[in-house]
What we know:
This protein has helices spanning 24-37, 53-65, 114-127, 143-151, and strands spanning 3-7, 13-17, 70-76, 79-88, 98-105, 133-139, 155-165, 171-180. The chain is of the alpha+beta class. The chain is globular, with a radius of gyration of 16 Å.
Amino acid sequence: MWEKEVFLKDGKKILIRKPEVKDAEELARCLSEIFTTDCLTLARYPEEREITAKAEMAFIENLKEDSRSIFLIALDGERIIGTCHFSAYNDSIKMRHRAECAVSVAKKYRNLGLATHLMKEGIREVKDLSYEQVELEVVSTNRNAIKLYEKLGFKKVGTTPNGFKEKDGSYQDLDKMVLFL
């Protein structure tokens, strides 16, 4: 099994690896925490995604069959503290060169370099899958995330005005960013 130890800015040693079925319950806990604390920057509200050990187990099992996706988890001991997912943007012949990605880190571990480690490892892995570019959307006001993506080589290629409509009726713009591999 592939795994890599990395060190955060505070010196803490973290393990990055691909998930196993035994991680399903812990992955559900981590994702529930992230979805609860990051509603404003994620594409879905917590109630729009089934976050259970059973659902995460099925997701992990499906990854074994999906040769065009990369999913990484970061662990502090046995606790999952971050995830990074790269998958096909579309599987049509004209678009199969494009991957999309998302990264999420538990609040306590932010600004310590974990998202950078996860993204770098994911980008390294996704290059081997014949993708030519990686794309993402980020809330235009999420300066920390935009700074991370720019540091990794992503370029802003446009903005979708009112890309998110919140429950209260307010809107957020989304920036489209691309990394050419």
